[in-house]
Amino acid sequence: MTWLTRLVGFDTTSRDSNRELIAALGAAAADAGLTPRIVPDPTGQKANLIVSIPDANGSTEGGVMLAGHVDCVPVDAQHWSSDPFRVDIRDGLAYGRGTADMKGFDAAVAAALPDMAAGPLREPLHLCFTYDEEIGCRGAQPLVDALQAAGIRPRVCFVGEPTSMRMIRAHKSINVAQVSVRGVGAHSSLTPDGVNAIEYAARIVLFHRKRCDRWRAEGPFDDAYPVPYTTGSVNQISGGTAVNIVPDQCVVTLEWRSLGELDDAAEIAALQDFCAGVEQDMRAENPAASITVEMIASAPGLDTPEDAESVLLGRELGLQVCPDKVTYGTEAGIYDRGGVSTVVVGPGDIAQAHKADEFVSLDQLAACDAFIARLIRHLRADA
User: Catalytic amino acids?
Assistant: First the structure.
């Protein structure tokens, strides 16, 4: 509980820096006699952390990876019963921002550092903490790149998102596109002098709505998901200045979460092609008009086979497999695509994530502690 209290006490909302929390974890690793590797993002305001415990021969090749993100979602406009950045324990539940998603898992890993470092391992153990998962899994690929550059290639990964300590083998991808439409402003009594950014943005909104309807009607389908088809929506839109001005800008943010059978790259290309066509029509009115498409998040889905190394190891360590696939996204697909057999398993319930009065039960935290203890015993050289 000490580590959970410490980690929740750091406000690591994704818009802010995570460096203080990363420094605290790095210091704990150093105190345990381990070498923390801090990997900053391009701005230097955020960082990933890698801590590898070599095997008895000093090798970091292969082994098991425990992965968690340290950022959390905002508490803005939420009504909490207690301070969201201070753990409050009531009726066997620990309340606080990130307790479930996913500082409960991070705290369990941190608390086990001395035990992990205490004796020789027959396989290495890799501890990885990332930034910006909540805004598109932005830290995961730089983490994979850093691991590969260091010659670290885990064979198995457990991503500690809240799953009630059951292994999740599959989830959908997530793709978020921000489309910026730049028109030409004019007095609304002189509409031919302008290019209406909102009206052209509406064409893009309708394009995305139609393809979401097509996915719902035509599939592909997978009944293992609670929503058995690819979903999508337009989630943010802003534009215009005043009621008597032809709007010169409009920004549309849209997303889709797809089944593995859907080719996300092809769907991104289709969106870009459609926007290029709209831009051409805008420029026919005025060459100054333009449209840009920025993928602000694109994380692959996960579909780990039942006989994969990660699933088999999890079973050996006493974990059960959740029979269902889930609609939310994680960093697991990025690690799996990087060649690491990956499942998602961690304390807490995803239903509590992102809400006011987020909580994780003490029983779930204890179950996570026990799982990590079993993993360490499994990896002991003298086991």
Answer: 71, 133
Q: Do residues 255 and 235 lie in contact, with contact meaning Cβ atoms separated by under 8 Å?
A: yes
Please report, for the chain, the start and end positions of each structural domain, with discontinuous segments joined by +.
Answer: 2-170+301-379, 173-299
Provide the β-strand partners of residue 290. Answer: 182
How confident is the model over 302-333, as pLDDT tens digits? 999 999 999 999 999 999 999 989 988 999 99
Among the CATH numbers 3.30.930.10, 3.30.70.360, 1.20.1540.10, 3.40.50.670, which is that of 173-299?
Answer: 3.30.70.360
Q: How far apart are CA 103 and CA 37, in angstroms?
A: 20
Q: 8: which 2 tokens?
A: 């929740």
pLDDT tens digit sequence for 136-165: 899 999 999 999 999 999 999 999 999 999
Work out whether strand 47-53 and strand 93-95 pair parallel, antiparallel, or are unpaired. Answer: unpaired
Contacts of 284 (CB under 8 A, 6+ apart): none
- pTM for this entry: 0.91
